[in-house]
Amino acid sequence: MSTVMLRSVFLYLCLMLFSWFSLSPARVYAEERIVVDLARYDVPISTGFSGSNLLLFGAAPGDGDILVKLRGPAQNYLVLEKKRFAGLWLNGERTRIDSAPAFFHIFTSGDEGDDWLSSFEKARNDFSLNDLRINVSPAKSQFYSYSKSQKFRDAFIRRQRNLGLYGERPKSIDKLGNNLFRVLLTLPAGLPTGTYIIETFLVSEGKVLSAQATPLFVRRSGSGAVVFNFAEQFSFLYGFCAVVLALAAGFLANRLFVWR
Amino acid sequence: MSVYLPIAELSVNVFVLLGLGLGVGILSGMFGVGGGFLMTPMLIFLGIPPAIAVGTEANQILASSTSGVLGYWRRGGVDVKMGLLLMAGGLVGSSFGVLLFTLLKNIGQIDFFIKIVYVLLLFSVASMMLIESYFDGRRARLLSSAGKPSVRGGKRKRSSWTRLLPFKTRFRTSRLYTSALLPLAIGSVVGVLAAMLGIGGGFVMIPAMIYILRMPPHTVTGTSLFQIIFVTANATFLQAGFNHAVDIVLAMLLVVGGVVGAQLGVRWGQKIDAIHFRLLLALIVLCVCFRLFWELVATPGELLSVTELR
User: Fold this and answer.
1) Residue B302 located in a structural domain
2) How many domains does chain B divide into?
3) What is the three-state SS of chain A?
4) Per-window interface: A 169-188 vs B, CB < 8 A
5) ipTM of predicted assembly, 2 dp
């Protein structure tokens, strides 16, 4: 064997190895990529809105678990702690919770008890209500102990849960065959408006293999939107209109009923 | 069927709101009270934020007082001069009330304040009505046994301090000669209450007109309604402007129920035994009062309350 041949074989092997290492992750990625779409991209909240359902469907290769995270726009909150004073309960200490999601729901194909996710992935991606990061910021440069800020956090999450704004729905994703899945995202009556992010994750053996994010727009529509925007932007003109409308309603009522 | 209230930002059943308007309307038609002092607590019980309940109720009272005052106006039951003086005080009072309201809202004590003042107010109204219906009942029994004509009032005892006040002026419609400071002061006190509590204030105003101003009965209700229009219009305007607290959709639904209810109430009110029904109203008011009081004294299930910040 000549040295030239040896060199070309070596080069060929190098090229092979190089292409193997450089292309293989891409190939794996292409194979295990998750594809998701929504039945609609916007949810109009009209005057008659009393909750809605939104279909999310997609394809994911393999038999991994699917997790859908529906996260609403950021919102600031005021938390007031009630204190007893002379037998009456009134508001005492004030705490702010800054930029917490106004809406947060987790839908999963797996069961609640299953330990199908590593705690690292859970904590990193806010995969459960327990892991959701909430910024409790005391007023006036105070410092809260862990247990105290945990108390505010728990109360906040409890409140959001009771209003149907936060929740976890295990086993809510239907898998059809080997590849397809679908989930009906339930949206409650008091759905906050704004831009939502729907993130869908493919999880296998405790690791996130692939993810896709889709925006969802929840907006006021119809007369409700007109009234709200008008009241926000031109509050005094809105007040004036409210006065005129009430006067007109009063006159009309008098004409219809009192006048004989 | 539920309706989404754009300012309160929640869905409420339409028929609950219409029924509430109807119910309170019937009571107000029967007894000639405005009904704001019952409606606002009811809205709070429904889950409407207290601040929005107050602002919206001012708007509803504006509509119901407008429909009410027109009848009195035609019968000459409105003392315009007195009404305008009460109104001047009322505008100052209600503006101050909205200011105080905004201040309390900003320090997070508005809900507590609304509830505690309501408890005190409802309790005094209910006890006043109970005492009144007790005495009316006794008088009715006395009259039926003795067969005498009514001796109501008798000789009026003049309160001396009101005569010492300056700026005396003549009120032709009410045939009065009294100080202009009195209606100004009464108007402003009631104005503060109206703006902060979402009431017209008729049940405070009318006794004050009778016992302090000594106005004759035929001008009392009309003049009270007349000034309520201006005070609630001012409160609506300022509450919407500063506090975003007026929900037009909610107000209009309550107006529809209230107007129909008031007509039914007036019709039924002529047939019923007034003394017993006033007793009933007093008991209803007492129930609402105790329910609110209970909310203040009972250990809350949740010590931490969370509200969205705009």
Assistant:
1) no
2) 1
3) CCHHHHHHHHHHHHHHHHHHHHHHHHHHHHHCCCEEEECCCEEEECCCCCCEEEEEEEECCCCCEEEEEEECCEEEEEEEEEEEECCEEEEEEEEEEEEEECCEEEEECCCCCCCCECHHHHHHHCCCCCCCCCEEEECCCCCCCHHHHHHHHHHHHHHHHHCCCEEEECCCCEEECCCEEEEEEEECCCCCCEEEEEEEEEEECEEEEEEEEEEEEEEECHHHHHHHHHHHHCHHHHHHHHHHHHHHHHHHHHHHHHCC
4) none
5) 0.80
